[in-house]
Amino acid sequence: MPCDVKGPVCIFIFKTIIEPHIGELSLFKVYSGTIKSGCELVNENTGVTEKFNQLFLLEGHNRVPVQELVAGDIGATIKLRSTHVNNTLHDKGPNIELVPIEFPHPNVTIAISVVNKGDEEKLSQVLHTLQEEDATVRFEVSPEIKQTLLHCQGELHLKVLQWKIEHIHKLDVKFEKPKIPYRETISRKAESNYRHKKQSGGAGQFAEVYMRIEPWYEGMPNPEGLNLRSKEEIELEWGGRLVFCNCIVGGAIDTRFLPSIMKGVMEKMQNGPLTGSYVRDVRVSVYDGKMHDVDSNDISFKIAGLQAFRQAFMEAEPQLLEPIYTVEVLCSDEMVGAVMGDLQTRMGVVEGMEAEGHFEKITAKVPLSQMHQYSSSLRSLSGGRARFSMYFDSYSPVAYKVERKLTEAHNKHEVLQA
Q1: Measured between alpha carbons, how far is residue 17 from residues 45, 58, 85, 268 in Å?
Q2: What whole-number distance in Å separates Cα of residue 252 and Cα of residue 288?
């Protein structure tokens, strides 16, 4: 049935509640017109027509049924099937879309896992529910560090989420410090060659690849001393670039095997030789090799390409990079010294300070590895009167001692896995 209103209806969804004792509700504010029970409105964001069979006012956990809500009212309805937070709904007719809420960027990240094996699917469902009802909550399953990461606003926010998971959704979970998404690269040129040969009766496997690798940078000249025939530039999903150059002359390797060599290189770049982290910003030039009329195939050249890249990488002065974040702290004048001192103990580099309203804003570059539980530290340091935000800035080389420690741990893990 159409809305019985004196003017056009326009509402904005600002929250979803999904809890057992309340049920699934969509909370909204009426911006214009009068909405009545049973009316139909169009979702401007999805194009779906939603029917409002029931309208409520909320008083704590109690739902008070009403027949209509007018402009300025905040009400609720049984959760709509194709409507989410930040959606605008209105009468059929002119298109209307209200400015969406800009939710704050998460400042705390924690790794979450289940205590009991077999509850992984339930954890995924619970995290989707939490994200649906609280737009400041985000989660991701990171294939890089192989952890499920929960992002939220602060330590108190995290404790509330933990309480909901354990007491409302009845799921035992544990939190731990997330791993750091390091990157690997090289600092000089190196060459290598690898011959893959396998014979086990019948057709065997044979491939030989000669390769040069170099640190890549924007605008670098063509490979020196090599005959560049073709070049492919790949923007990597994890940042940085791979430039793959075909410098083969005389048909030493058939061009049909080049994609297999590159596939082997990419496979090793996803599991770097130093710590198993992603590799970035490398130029690879394949300039020679050998093949066999019968035994050479794609898998042979993939293996040869992977091993040649690994060998060259370890000879090219490999470097481990860590993520650096821009941290902005708002605090009062009397706290500036203490806040700056704390950032410096976290290996942070203070870049500046400026007034912002009644506060001082301190800007610093800090390694992500030093920011764990910073929210709690800042709250303790300032008596809860300071706040901060952080954003990814760049990657920077880690200290040699840290690199050696991480490399040794990775090598030990590789031996145990073998």
Answers
A1: 20, 11, 11, 45
A2: 6
Is the separation of the CB atoms in 269 and 305 below 8 Å? Answer: no
Greater confidence (327 vs 154) lies with 327
Would the CA dihedral through 220, 221, 224, 228 be positive or negative?
Answer: positive
Q: What is the pLDDT of residues 342-367, one digit of tens each?
A: 999 999 999 999 998 889 999 999 99
Question: What's the whole-number mean pLDDT along residues 308-333?
Answer: 95
Domains, in order of start, for the chain: 10-90 (2.40.30.10), 108-176 (3.30.70.870), 184-316 (3.30.230.10), 321-400 (3.30.70.240)
For residue 69, give every residue at least 6 positions away whose Cβ sits within 8 Å of its Cβ, in sequence order, or none.
30, 34, 35, 55, 57, 75
d(CA 320, CA 406): 9
pLDDT tens column, 194-222? 999 987 766 788 999 999 999 999 999 99
Is 333 exposed, middle or buried (CB count within 10 Å of its CB: 0-12, 13-18, 19+)? Answer: exposed
pLDDT digit string (tens) for 111-162?
Answer: 999 999 989 999 999 999 899 888 899 999 998 899 999 999 888 899 999 9
Rounded to an integer, what distance in angstroms lies between the CA atom of residue 206 and that of residue 291? 7
Alpha carbon distance 304, 193 (integer Å): 8
Distance CA 265, CA 244 (A): 9
- pTM score, two decimals? 0.81
| Count of CB atoms situated within 10 Å of the CB of 414 | 10
Amino acid sitting at position 355: A
Nearest to 196 by CA among 288, 286, 271, 307: 307
Please name the amino acid found at residue 182.
Y
H helices of 86-192, where? 120-133, 155-163
